[in-house]
């Protein structure tokens, strides 16, 4: 989660929230006269913190960068056990066959716990040889208390279906610079999907293909950390499925660790005037000419609007060489492949700012929070062919591209932060003068096939349920926006409806599976929440004018004297006026019922649901539940 969001939540939430005296409590404990204090410090709200490594693979394809062999001590991959965690899971969690390159007897790990600086030291359980290289094997495991601790500080849900677990620290790497581990987390409400087998090692659903290719990620150990045999996947895919896709997006059943969350590789470009050369390498991937790109997503990032929308955008952007055009000194994340600090709107593919921040010139250049929904920058829409050049205003760039680097969260500075230094205004005439006029296809649809590569087995039914649900949700079939709690929307909405992203799987034989799922505003299951169990499903959308009652029982096992509960909806960006909450007593049998105030027009927006439990003399409490998105509208 961006540090700014953490600070925002801390500042907004540590205020004592005075509540009316609770109803009679069977435990005999009394509500403090000053009310309860519900806090939310240093939350990790599930967002990917790694960045896109598209520039690295672009340079590699162009021959500008030699392969960078994975060094000894670098974590490679692991199998999550259980393969999908649920919020009510009470068993052990193991990172099975956690591979580390080289002869590494021990490695450090910092569990996610903002209240502790403590680290763990793992001792390897074996050594294997992969492609002639020594690889150390670890099998760390934890009990249910660790999951409870992680979930009290992590938002997860239908927008971020994983939780942050901690970071692996190779020798010489300090906390904050390690390799982040996230666990895939599934709702108990995920629907069962139809699955058909196309071959002994291939199966598919309505929106996902699963191909078993043993050792697929092992090439990382002998070549480059982003080196995968994509052609092996795509050629296998075309044996059983139509050659009618613009992009094949690949993710893996085993969790590979990298310094990035995803990357995009163009295998064809037929658009002039965007800064990318014309080329066609589709035959290398088994396509007869349709395929335009392949993508790699680490972990569960293909299920996240912020990342999945970003990667598709790289088909057309960002290719403007601002250094060549105006002499701009670029800084930030892979600036040659991402947009600079500039005016004109927010961007999903920025090197300096994340999409939740943009530059405003109203009353002097400053940072403002991007209003919902977060959309593509006009220059990206021009490259896609969705805006004419005449509709793009002059773009102001800022000479000091690194002016936010000293801030707590340089990618999402506080709203109102001044944007200073020299400026340069660039017209579209100048951009077209360097790149030429944009010409080429303007798609109204973008067909993307999501392929999950598994190792040693095909995916289980439950795993197919998970990937299929999120593949359908990312495609936003009803154009509802399927926003995350922090405003990142589907590709369709980010393009202002100009391009419809589709994830339909079309086999050559066996028949297409058509199974629409309720992906827009799905309900949470009653047991989707750690430490509390609700009496029924929890809707993820509420209408203005309605009320919401949350009744259930405490399922926490750490103590037996909880006597009061707060249920809160917390809106991002957050603040004193962005909290809707109520309190109630917890009865002697652990049950409670909380009714929130009626939702008014001022409450429209996206929230996380937070639940707090209080015991005698408990003092300020962190939430036991943080789940989202909850939409009021």
Structural class: alpha+beta
- End-to-end separation: 25 Å
> Low-confidence runs (pLDDT<50, min 5 residues)?
1-34, 45-49
Strand count, sense and barrel status of the largest sheet are: 9 strands, mixed
Percent helix, as a range, is: 10-25%
At the first level of CATH, the class of the domain at 3-42 and 525-632 is Mainly Beta
Predict the CATH topology of the domain at 3-42 and 525-632. Answer: Immunoglobulin-like
From the spread of the alpha carbons, the general shape counts as globular
- Rg over C-alpha atoms, rounded to the nearest angstrom: 25 Å
CATH superfamily of the domain at 3-42 and 525-632: Macroglobulin (MG2) domain
State mean pLDDT (0 to 100 scale). Answer: 89
How would you explain this protein's 3D organization?
The structure is a single chain. The protein is of the alpha+beta class and 633 residues long. Among the domains are: 3-42 and 525-632, Sandwich (Immunoglobulin-like); 51-184, no CATH class. Helix content is 14%, strand content 27%. It has eleven helices and 34 strands. The strands form eight sheets. Strands 1, 12, 13, 14, 15, 17, 20, 25 and 26 form a nine-stranded mixed β-sheet that branches. Strands 2, 3, 6, 7, 8 and 16 form a six-stranded antiparallel β-sheet that branches. Strands 9, 28, 30, 31, 33 and 34 form a six-stranded mixed β-sheet that branches. Strand 21 (357-360) and strand 22 form a beta hairpin. The chain starts with a helix and ends with a strand.
